[in-house]
């Protein structure tokens, strides 16, 4: 590798994910009982609450950023195709491959920069959905009909969705018996000074998600989300010092929405830059 691989620090992005419209991220359909919905959502097997997997958000961010930048989808992953640089020269200047990762067998690959955590219902959303008269625990059932183009016969189907207004957030588990604390939705690893600049692409991808959709059935109204109450923090390596225990949050109060956070981001990163040697 042409450069020394050393973890210089991490950025931590804390944010709420608000379901603007009903949200469907599909789960396994094998457990659906008689009378259940045709297309269930993914749930926490312990609490039975719907969750927002980090893989769904990260995959959508990568897909949209690749399309926005015109990156060639040249590498098959199952039935999907993603962009993967095929030479060291292209890889060295490709933020998508560095941020979201490439297959580990490539001889010139560095570690993935971005980690996206699973997100869970906030306490307020959990209580609101418990009080609401929802079709299923924490979720609604949306009826749709597929129309046969020849006979005009309608075939009804049921889609389970988390209702609009629900809020998800990553969480960090505290000591046994203590309440769960808010955690960072995203963790971004800094190996080289340029990684700090490439973090702009992470937030750009979040904006692309807001204007698109998350999960399934987005072209029919589901899956519009918004990022709210954002904070940026860091842990920076210091010479001969232990890894920091606590995150240093740059601002005390969260920034209300993604648009304002994007405007503030260059100044936020400039405040961290002197600490990256």
Task: Describe the fold and architecture.
The protein is of the alpha+beta class and 277 residues long. The protein has one domain (9-28, 49-132, 164-275). Helices cover 25% and strands 25% of the residues. It has six helices and 15 strands. The protein has helices spanning 54-69, 88-92, 95-100, 123-131, 194-210, 258-272, and strands at residues 9-19, 51-52, 75-77, 80-82, 114-116, 119-121, 140-147, 154-161, 167-169, 171-172, 181-182, 186-190, 225-236, 248-249, 255-257. The strands form four sheets. Strands 1, 2, 5, 6, 9, 12, 13, 14 and 15 form a nine-stranded antiparallel beta sheet that branches. The protein has a two-stranded antiparallel ribbon with strand order 3-4. Strand 7 and strand 8 (154-161) form a beta hairpin. Helix 5 packs antiparallel against helix 6 (258-272). The chain is globular and about 65 Å long. The protein starts with 8 loop residues before the first strand and ends in a 5-residue tail after the last helix.
């Amino acid at each position: 590798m042409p450069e020394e691989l050393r973890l210089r620090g991490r950025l931590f992005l804390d944010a709420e994910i608000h379901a603007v419209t009903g949200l469907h991220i599909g789960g396994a359909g094998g457990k659906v009982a008689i009378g259940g919905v045709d297309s269930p959502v993914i749930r926490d097997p312990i609490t039975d609450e719907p969750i927002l997997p980090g893989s769904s958000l990260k995959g959508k961010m990568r897909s949209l950023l690749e399309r926005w930048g015109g990156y060639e989808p040249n590498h098959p992953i199952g039935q999907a195709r993603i962009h993967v640089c095929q030479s060291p020269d292209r890889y060295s200047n490709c933020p998508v491959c560095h941020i979201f990762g490439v297959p580990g067998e490539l001889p010139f690959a560095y570690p993935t920069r971005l980690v996206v955590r699973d997100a869970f219902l906030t306490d307020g959303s959990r209580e609101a959905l418990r009080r609401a008269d929802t079709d299923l625990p924490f979720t609604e059932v949306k009826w749709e009909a597929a129309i046969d183009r020849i006979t005009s016969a309608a075939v009804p189907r049921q889609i389970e969705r988390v209702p609009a207004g629900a809020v998800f957030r990553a969480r960090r588990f505290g000591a046994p018996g203590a309440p769960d604390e808010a955690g960072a939705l995203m963790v971004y690893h800094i190996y080289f000074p340029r990684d700090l600049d490439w973090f702009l692409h992470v937030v750009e991808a979040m904006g692309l998600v807001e204007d698109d959709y998350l999960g399934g059935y987005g072209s029919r109204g589901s899956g519009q989300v918004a990022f709210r109450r954002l904070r940026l923090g860091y842990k920076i390596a210091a010479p001969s010092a232990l890894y920091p225990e606590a995150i240093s949050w740059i601002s005390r109060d969260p920034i209300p929405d993604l648009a304002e956070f994007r405007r503030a981001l260059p100044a936020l990163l400039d405040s961290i830059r002197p600490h990256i040697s």
